Task: structure prediction
Amino acid sequence: MTLRIALVILVCAALSVVESVVPFLLHLRTARADLLLIVILYLALHDDVIEGAALSAVAGYLSDLTSATPAFLYTFLGVLTFIVVRLGGSALKTEGGIQSAAVAFGASLIHSIIATLVFGFFTGAGMHFEFGPLIWSAVGTAIAAPIVFSILRRLDSGFLHVDGGGLH
Amino acid sequence: MQGEKREGPGRAGRSEILVGSILKRFREPIFVVALLAVPFVIFFVKAKKGRDLNLVDKVVLSLTAPIEKTISGTAFAVSDVWHGYLALRGVRDENVRLRRESIRARSIEQQTTELRLENERLKRLLDFTDKQAPMRLLTARVVAVGASPHSHTLRIARGADDGVVKGAAVIAPDGIVGTVAQLTSAYADVQLVVSPLSAVPAITQRTRGRSTVKGTGDIGRCKLEYALRTDDLQEGDLLVTAGGPGFYPPGLRIGRVTNVVRKPHGLFLDAEVVPAVDFSRLDEVSVVVAAEPTPAPPAEVAGSPQ
Result:
C-alpha cells in the first residue's frame, strides 16, 4: 500500500466523521453534503482505474458503515459511480470551483436516484422519491465540492513535489 | 537441421500463457467488474436481512465513533459555557416564564398523580395484571448522524455493554425515535421511524382505530398505511404506538395525522404523519432495555435461630 492510498483512506475517514458530526451539530435536516461522493468524483477524474475503483469502494464502505442500510449498498454504488463518471470523464471538467460544483450537483442527483431505485427494489421498502431532499442534498454537495477537491489536489500536488525531488 | 527439434510450450503451457495475456490485457476491466459484482452480490443476498457487523466493521466503528463523540462532546461543552456564562441576557425574563410554567406543571402533575392512583385502584378492582415485560429506560447521548445524506440514522453512545440489543426501541420525551439497527460494545446506530425500512403499528388516540406508520425517507413526514376508509380519521389526530411483542411499548406518541385523502373506492384511506419528534434536534434519547432481574428476597427459613 503506497503512502498516497493510505492518505486518501485517512481523508475519507476524516470526511466521514465530518459528514456525521457537522449536520448533527448544526441541526441540518436536508442540505447535507455527500462528501465521500465528492472523493469518488475526484478519484474518477484523476486516478488510475484500479487504484481509483478500489478507493471508491473504500469510500462507499465507510458510507455503508454509518447508514444502517443492508450491507454493501453504498460500496456497490461507490464503484458504480466511479465507473459512470470515469466513462463520461472526458466530457467533465472540474478545473474551477463552479465547474466542480456543477459536476458534483449532477453526480449527487444521479447517485441519489440510483440509490433510491436500488434500495427500494432490492429491500422491498418500495420507491419513495422525495425530490426536495434529493435536490437539497445535491446543493450541499455542490457547495462542499470545491473545498474537498482542493484538499485532494493539495494532497496530490504534495506527492508530485516529492516525486520531483527524487524521493520515492 | 536434422535432429534439432524446437521445444515450444505444451498445450497446458500455451493455455496458461493465453490466460496470462488475457488477464494482463483486461486487468483493469476484470478488477473493476469484480469490485462491482462482489458488493452487489452480498447486498442482494442480505438486502432483506438487515446488517450484522463483522470484525472489520467493528474495528472501523471503534476507531471513528470515539472521534465523533469527542467532537460533539466538545461542541456541546463550548455551547454550555456560552449559554451558562456569556449569554445571560434575558435570563430574568426566562426565569419568570419558567416559574409560571413550573407552577402550571405542578398542577398538572398533581392531576396526573390523582389519575394514576385512580387507575391503580380500578385495576385492582378489576383484578387486571400488567402483562408488559418489565423494562427500564437507559439515557443515551446522541453523538452523530448517519454519514450519507440518504441515511436515516443516529449514533448513540451506548452499546451492547450497556445492555442495548438489536431492535431495541429508542424514544425521546416528545415521542418515538426509532430502533437499534446495529451496534458495537459502546455505540449503537438507531434507524429512525422516517426510514423507508421502518413500520410501526399505531392507534389513533381519539378513535382507537388501528393503522401502520411507514417511513418515507423524508425526515419530516411518514405515510399512514392500512387505516380503514370508514375510520373517522381527521387532520391533527394524534397517533400512538399500539405495542405488542417486539415493538415499541404501547401509548407512546408517534405523530399527528395530516393530508387525509378518502378515495371513493378501496379499503384504506391515504394520509401522512408528521413525526412528533424533530430528529435534527435530538441531543439525548432513551433506549428501552429489559429490566435487570430484581434479586429475590432471602427466603425465611422456618425455625431459624432468632
Q: What stands out?
A: Chain B has three domains: 16-45, 54-131, 132-291.
